[in-house]
Amino acid sequence: MRRPRFILLTSVLLTAGLAGFWLLNTSRAATETPEHTVIRSQPPFEIRDYPALKLATSPMAADGIQGGFGALFGFITGKNQSGSKLAMTAPVLIDNTTQQKRMSFILPKGAAENGVPQPLDASVQLGQLPPDRYAVLRFEGGRSARNEQNAIEKLRAWMETQRLKGKGVPLLAYYDPPWTPVFLRRNEVLIRIEKPRE
After folding, report:
1. Maximum Cα–Cα distance across the chain
2. Do residues 172 and 104 make contact, with C-beta atoms less than 8 angstroms apart?
């Protein structure tokens, strides 16, 4: 009687351990994020300086987040001229334009320094986000047009109280894989701001 219970308990513990290992290695903690400097923090708002970031970008289809994700994921998993695999980074960026939205993956630092292979999919373009200063708001919940618009409006209202002048379109930043529970997700909206004169 004891042996079947021992085997069952061992199986449960092994399964839980493997699941925990998988979750840890696919979680935000195990994913490279871009370096930045926090200039000012007033939670949930921050002002940050980012260095230049190399990006792979693809247009999003009308069906939403899946439109550009497949092309970009194909690129980092070997659909490129050298067949190289690139590490997934966070966050995934979406520019919030009224025209066709674009999704971008930030390229890992090692690949950006050592040369990035050319994509085979013509919808994937390589580019760079120049160094700049951003006002940032962290917001909760799933990805929806309503959540995004509320976050953008809240950040712009805070910027107005701080007398910060924005420029360009907002960027939406999603840090977590889709299986992350909604209440644990990290989402941000970033708006470039004018730096004060030195």
Report:
1. 78
2. no
Contact 135, 158 (CB under 8 A): yes
Return the number of other C-beta atoms located less than 10 Å from residue 57's C-beta.
19
> CA-CA-CA-CA torsion for 100, 105, 109, 111, nearest 10 degrees?
-100
pLDDT tens for each residue of 47-94? 999 999 999 999 987 655 556 899 999 999 999 999 999 999 999 999
pLDDT digits (tens, 9 = 90+) for 117-140: 999 999 999 999 999 999 999 998
**pTM of the predicted model as reported, rounded to 2 decimal places:** 0.81
Where along the chain do its domains lie?
Answer: 1-30, 34-193
Q: Contact at 8 Å (CB) between 54 and 106?
A: yes
Q: What is the DSSP string of 64-107?
A: -THHHHHHHHHHHTT-BTT------BS-EEEE--SSS-EEEEEP
Asked if residue 131 has a cis previous peptide bond (ω within 30° of 0), the answer is: no
Q: 34-193, what's its fold?
A: Multidrug-efflux Transporter 1 Regulator Bmrr; Chain A (3.20.80)
> At CA 191, angle to CA 189 and CA 194, rounded to 5?
160
Tokens 């390229």 appear where?
A: 107
Distance CA 31, CA 142 (A): 20
Buried/exposed code over 97-128 (b: 16+ C-beta within 10 A; e: otherwise) = eeeebbbbbbbbbebbeeebbebeeebbeeee
